[in-house]
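Progress report, Aim 2. The chain analyzed during this reporting quarter is listed below.
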Amino acid sequence: MKIKIGDAIIIILTIISLAVGLWYLFGNSPTFEQALIILILTVQVSTIVKITQVGSRLNLLEKSFGHLAKDFKESKRGK
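Predicted structure tokens for the chain:
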């Protein structure tokens, strides 16, 4: 299984977010706001990566429907 760079970034940010969250819970750590900023950054990057993936799949789907419409028009002319 091949891991895409976007998925790798999400995994790394999730691990960092969990580590900072646990570090905050056990003390001698960054402030609550810093831990929250890392969590928000992880969620935002995850959302951007997923939207990009959905957008690229939608483009492929639009092309497929375009080819399908062309095939229907050609078959209608042939009759």
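The chain has two helices and no strands. Residues 5-78 form one domain. These observations will guide the mutagenesis work planned for the next reporting period.
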